[in-house]
Amino acid sequence: MSLTLSAIVEQLGGRLSGSPDLSIEGLAPLQSAQPHQISFLSNPKYQYQLADSAAGCVILAPAFEFAARPGCAVIVTDDPYLYFARLTRLWKQSLGPQPGPRIHPSAVIDPQAVVADDAVIGPLCVLERGVRVGAGTVLKSRVTLSQGCVVGARCILHSGVVVGADGFGFALHQGQWEKIEQLGAVRIGDDVEIGANTCIDRGALEDTVIENGVKLDNLIQIGHNVHIGAHTAMAGCVGVAGSARIGAHCTVGGGAVVLGHLTLADHVHISAASVVTRSISQPGNYTGMFPLDTNANWEKNAASLKQLSRLRERIKALEADIQNNQDNQP
Fold it and tell me: Over the stretch 180-227, which tens digit does the pLDDT of each residue have?
């Protein structure tokens, strides 16, 4: 398939400098794009690739308009990355609907589940009793929606997602664990995307809640009774323990962990591999990790860290002695 530059600009806007009739046959990175492909520049540190790129057209900001190779068409826009994102969606829409049934014959759907007329249910999906799936939502292969869970409109759940498994709830009695039945469900809002093999546990009493516009990457674990605010995004392998409340417009980097029963305010950003051990009440960027080092140095530093509490007490005692000496001076 192909789109002309004039068709792209007509749909997405921007200011075109170059031939409107140039036919674009694909999207590609700057360093590998060919004359009938379109690319973009959003990060200034990659500007050095611009002059040597063979791309037929580049999407860029006004500041870089004249840095492109002579003869290369450009689409000038204030936010090239956003323009590129919208172009990917336009490109996929232009491919037309994918062939195949709207509900795959291998899907298992309980008669009491409610599925919107235009929702798409992929191979080997399981929808249990009382499940509701909203308009325009797509469930890829092997998605499981357990009893009573709700998924809103225009969501995408990728392969292997499990929504509504039992939360990790047990009571210890005489050295043995007794199960606490998980009586809540999971409520997922509109425009949510959930990556492959991510698991969202049902609540113990109240529901686990994923608000509108949340984006979850692959292999994420969301514990029971967690509440994630609107338009928050989490990268792969994040773990959120039970009853944590995460605000709106937050980001959590890959491999980070949020401990249970904590609260994160809106607009909190957690760095990759951090461990959040306390609630955060103010917006901002937060990091909690030990810097990478050689194993030998790490072991030395770890040994020192184990002595910090004792050293702290010694310092406090020395400070008290100094203060006493100063107080007793004539």
Answer: 999 999 999 999 999 999 999 999 999 999 999 999 999 999 999 999
Sorted by sequence, the CB contacts under 8 Å of residue 322 that are 6+ apart come out as none
Q: Which domain holds residue 20?
A: 3-94
Q: Which of 36, 104, 158, 224 is catalytic?
A: 224
User: Is 104 one of the catalytic residues?
Assistant: no
| Pairing relationship of beta strands 176-179 and 170-173 according to DSSP bridges | antiparallel
Q: What is the pTM of this model?
A: 0.90
Quote the CA–CA distance of 17 and 116 in Å, as a whole number.
44
Domain assignment of residue 100, yes or no:
no
Q: Which residues on neighbouring strands pair with residue 139, listed in sequence order?
A: 121, 157
Whether residues 227 and 299 fall in one domain: no
Q: Which of 78, 86, 79, 65 is nearest to 10 (CA)?
A: 86
Q: How far apart are the first and last CA of the chain?
A: 92
Q: Give CB contacts under 8 A, 24+ apart, made by 107-110.
A: none
Q: Are residues 141 and 235 in the same domain?
A: yes
